[in-house]
């Protein structure tokens, strides 16, 4: 988590932003999460499902915004890996995302499985950013990366946004306007905390395993 960032202190600002600019808000959260800020992709997609369920955003434009946000953030990481190559593990902003050992491991996987690493790896929490960086480092053809990532992103959207949509329809009818946004923001924050804790747990286990 970035130093000085407290998710609880920022819930109100995020809530108001989504209230006035729901489409731009969802897009921004996806892109900012992709570049390293603590806005996990899954929690944003769950939030998007809630917003659709409560008619805050419409299904088709909402899908297009979500899809664009995912592709922009994913391709940015791919571009970083392609530009810096193996030096990405030394880059001050991205070295915390991938270690030299993990990069070597991913290089072996890419040599063996190619685009399938992107296709299936996208659904592995905590490994997405590493896989996208690795695809760039391995100089995967941009079109191959976009096609593989673009197809598998559809499954990510369907699953995670579907969870949010189902949850939004299962709760009691919320009050309109601000009260409705407030409840949605709280659920999104809880989802964020759960996913962040899981990410930290996986990262801690990885560090212990690397030491062993």
Describe the structure.
75% of the residues lie in helices and 0% in strands. It has one domain. It is globular, with a radius of gyration of 18 Å. By secondary structure, it is mainly α. Helix 1 packs across helix 9 (178-211), helix 3 (41-53) packs antiparallel against helix 4 and helix 3 (41-53) packs antiparallel against helix 9 (178-211).
Structure summarized in a few sentences:
This protein is mainly α and 212 residues long. The chain is 75% helix and 0% strand. The N terminus is likely disordered.
Number of spatially distinct domains: 1
Distance between the termini: 25 Å
Q: Compute the gyration radius: what is it?
A: 18 Å
Beta-strand content = under 5%
Structure annotation, total helices: 9
Bulk shape: globular
Multimeric organization? single chain
Q: Helix amount, in percent?
A: over 70%
Report the uncertain regions.
1-9, 172-178
Structural class of the helices, strands and pairings? mainly alpha
- SSE topology string: HHHHHHHHH
Number of distinct beta strands: 0
What can be said about the biggest beta sheet? none
Average residue pLDDT: 76
Keywords:
212 residues, mainly alpha, 9 helices, globular
SSE arrangement:
Layout: H1 7-20, H2 22-34, H3 41-53, H4 59-84, H5 100-113, H6 116-121, H7 128-137, H8 142-170, H9 178-211
Helix pairs in contact: 1-2, 1-9, 2-3, 2-4, 3-4, 3-8, 3-9, 4-7, 4-8, 5-7
């Amino acid at each position: 988590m970035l130093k000085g960032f407290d998710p609880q202190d920022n819930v109100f600002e995020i809530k108001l932003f989504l209230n006035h600019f729901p489409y731009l808000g969802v897009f921004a959260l996806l892109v900012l999460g992709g570049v390293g800020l603590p806005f996990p992709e899954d929690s944003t997609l769950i939030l998007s499902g809630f917003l659709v369920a409560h008619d805050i955003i419409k299904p088709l434009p909402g899908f297009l915004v979500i899809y664009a946000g995912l592709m922009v953030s994913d391709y940015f990481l791919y571009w970083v890996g392609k530009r810096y190559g193996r030096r990405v593990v030394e880059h001050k902003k991205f070295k915390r995302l991938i270690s030299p050992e993990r990069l070597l491991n991913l290089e072996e996987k890419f040599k063996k499985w190619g685009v399938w690493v992107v296709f299936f790896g996208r659904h592995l929490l905590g490994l997405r950013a590493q896989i996208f960086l690795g695809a760039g480092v391995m100089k995967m053809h941009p079109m191959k990366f976009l096609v593989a990532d673009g197809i598998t992103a559809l499954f990510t959207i369907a699953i995670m946004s579907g969870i949010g949509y189902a949850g939004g329809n299962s709760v009691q009818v919320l009050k309109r306007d601000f009260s409705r946004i407030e409840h949605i923001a709280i659920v999104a924050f809880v989802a964020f905390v759960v996913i962040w804790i899981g990410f930290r747990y996986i990262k801690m286990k990885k560090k212990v395993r690397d030491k062993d």
